[in-house]
Design brief:
three-stranded antiparallel β-sheet, 9 strands
């Protein structure tokens, strides 16, 4: 019987050739849980704004693993000891860090299941895979949870300058065409070091760090929080809320078996045993899109109207402002819409609503990005930088939005 070659090479538009380092990583990539990421879009509904943004979580996870390989190579060259077991655990942790994302990534994070973050679901998947792979993921799980004594390993997987952010900024910038998001990840990785088991960036890369944080800020305003993709994602959550409401009233809506399960049941983290995890692992963007295509012809005015908006990209009007919108404005719009469409005032909240978004490129409360100065002292990047805008980047900027149907203009 012929043996499968598990040391494959993949071609990536960002980095060129990516190599799979060992058979365990190959087997994890081949697992149905991971293959599902091919059907989860990286940027939710952003392709409604940027037509090229059709890349997936699968792309992103492989990219993260590739730059983790580069980071380990650089750190070993600088005499940071990383054992073979630790190296492998870092590959597994970064490869699986997003495996818990539901359909359309962040767009539906708290809609399918009740107040459960994708990180928590990722951990459930990792525990299940650890059982299947006879405990080979134990160290990766320890690192992912922050329980491993070598702090810099968690920082490589999850921090304000981790492999995840480095890949998604570069990748999302490439696929959207938003050039402001492009970063020099090669230089940032080359300038990494570890002091007392903590990740630091050498001082000569401080401008690259500043550029990285500025790119993150701009990508949030221009891509992730772009008002059109924001309103599309808000409509999608409203569609699912309405579908759940109708299902729980006993109205059977056409959709896939796995989607129906999550509409009929209130699922919290404690419920994620084997059968629920299996159902979740069968859910992806395709379930949602096929449901929307069927629901747009439904008799329910709310469900059909909202589903049509996404399928036909004929969305609600959204207005952004630095100030809160007056409550009276909402009242006037809801009363008018209620009369014109013969729906209750309570049901108008599916079409007319307000909220806020926040953008903070760098948080001073979270684990800092540490700069290793020439005199061997270590400083937070905000203090080490001579740029006034670094202090501005660490201040959260809040914007308020209001959404309503275009015919009310």
């Amino acid at each position: 019987m012929s043996q499968i070659n598990k040391l494959k090479i993949l071609n990536d538009p960002i980095y060129g050739f990516i190599s799979i380092p060992n058979p365990l990583i190959f087997d994890l990539i081949q697992h149905p849980y991971f293959q599902r990421l091919r059907r989860i879009s990286q940027m939710g509904l952003s392709y409604l704004v940027y037509p090229g943004a059709h890349h997936t979580r699968f792309h992103h996870a492989l990219g993260c693993m590739h730059i983790m390989q580069k980071a380990i190579e650089v750190l070993r060259f600088k005499d940071v000891s990383i054992s073979k077991e630790e190296e492998n655990a870092l590959y597994v942790a970064i490869l699986l860090h997003d495996i818990g994302h539901g359909p359309f990534s962040h767009a539906m994070e708290h809609s399918i299941v009740e107040n459960v973050s994708h990180e928590a679901i990722s951990l459930v998947f990792m525990d299940k895979l650890n059982t299947e792979f006879d405990g080979q993921l134990a160290l990766a799980i320890q690192i992912f949870k922050g329980d491993y004594h070598r702090k810099f390993m968690l920082q490589l997987v999850s921090s304000q300058l981790d492999m995840d952010r480095m890949d998604y900024l570069k990748r999302d910038s490439f696929y959207t065409g938003v050039a402001e998001g492009n970063i020099n990840s090669d230089r940032l990785i080359q300038m990494m070091n570890v002091v007392n088991d903590v990740l630091v960036i050498e001082e000569k890369a401080i401008y690259s760090v500043e550029k990285f944080l500025m790119a993150r800020r701009l990508m949030y305003w221009q891509a992730y929080l772009h008002k059109t993709s924001l309103v599309a994602e808000l409509i999608l959550t409203k569609v699912l809320k309405r579908a759940k409401e109708l299902t729980q009233k006993g109205i059977l809506l056409p959709c896939s078996e796995s989607l129906l399960f999550f509409m009929q049941n209130k699922v919290e983290l404690a419920d994620f045993e084997n059968s629920v995890l299996q159902k979740f692992s069968e859910l992806d963007d395709y379930d949602i899109v096929s449901a929307l295509k069927m629901w747009k012809n439904n008799d329910d005015f709310i469900l059909s109207s909202l589903s049509k908006m996404i399928i036909n990209r004929d969305l609600l009007k959204i207005k952004l402002s630095s100030d809160k919108f007056p409550v009276e404005e909402i009242h006037l719009l809801t009363e008018r819409f209620s009369k014109e469409n013969n729906i209750s005032l309570q049901d108008t909240h599916y079409f007319i609503f307000k909220g806020k978004i926040k953008n903070q490129a760098y948080s001073k409360e979270a684990e800092p990005i540490r700069i290793l100065k020439k005199d061997k002292t270590i400083e937070d990047v905000v203090e080490a930088s001579d740029q006034l805008n670094m202090k501005a980047l660490s201040k959260p900027v809040t914007k308020y939005y209001i959404c309503y149907p275009k015919q009310l203009l």
